[in-house]
Amino acid sequence: MNKRSFSRVLLGAVAGAFLLPAAALAQAKTLVVASSATYAPFAFENKDKQIVGFDIDIINAIAKKQGLALRIVNTPFSSIFASLGNGDVDLVISGVTINDKRKQSYDFSDPYFDARQLIAVAQGSSIASLKDIAGKKVAVVSGSTADDVSSREFGKASPNIRRFESTPLIISELASGGVDAAIGDNGVIAYRVSQTQGLKTVEDPHFPKEYFGIVLRKGDKELRDKVNAGLAAIKADGSYGAIYKKWFHQEYTPQ
């Protein structure tokens, strides 16, 4: 290779060095995912203080399909939306119900879990529906769908609605007799009740169907498209069904 050819190669390499980093950095960006790790079996800390659960397996499977790098951060549910809104995190997966109120401020992926509200009460309780809770004390997670449901039914300022930061706290309050009922998402309430003596669950058929979605900042279409493509892929190849069975011990049946 003569000097002139070598110079051309060198110049090309230098030019390429300036062109590549932007694309490489964009590809290598680690997305920060917020999840409240007090929400077994969706997200919780195991004995080694690692965040595990259905939600965690789902978002990791989606990321693997789409070649995305993730970092999961344990974030209290009460501040999870603020963390997304101010840019501290890029995604939220934490058993978040898709509803019209939230869609005004955030974007959602396609649904990744079919849900409904479930009531927990003491074994000897006569409560058989939401209306039976009128005049009684009920525990909910602050800002949750159960909070919205209770606020509509009993009045947002009702002193009988006791708001807590996490599902373990509302179940603990119920178990200790501090409230007459606790309301939350079916998967997590059923799991917590199964781990707590003296409690049972009550299904109210009047609770509407709900769907969990992965939450994104408003207008982040590129990331939403990637998440949706990954979700569709894991449903198509059986990965979703395997994860569902792992955490809920039954076959997944689409609603």
Task: Give an account of the 3D structure.
The chain has 255 residues and is α/β, with parallel strands linked by helices. It is built from nine helices and 15 strands. It has helices at 3-28, 54-66, 80-85, 100-103, 145-154, 167-175, 186-194, 221-236, 239-248; strands at residues 30-35, 38-39, 43-45, 51-52, 69-74, 91-92, 106-108, 113-115, 117-122, 138-141, 161-164, 181-185, 199-202, 210-212, 215-217. The strands form four sheets. Strands 5-1-6-15-7 form a five-stranded mixed sheet. Strands 11-10-12-9-13 form a five-stranded mixed sheet, with helices on both faces. Strand 10 (138-141), helix 5 (145-154) and strand 11 (161-164) form a beta-alpha-beta unit. Helix 2 packs across helix 8 and helix 2 packs antiparallel against helix 9. The longest helix is centred in the first third of the chain and has 26 residues, at 3-28. The chain is globular. Residues 9-26 have low confidence and may be disordered.
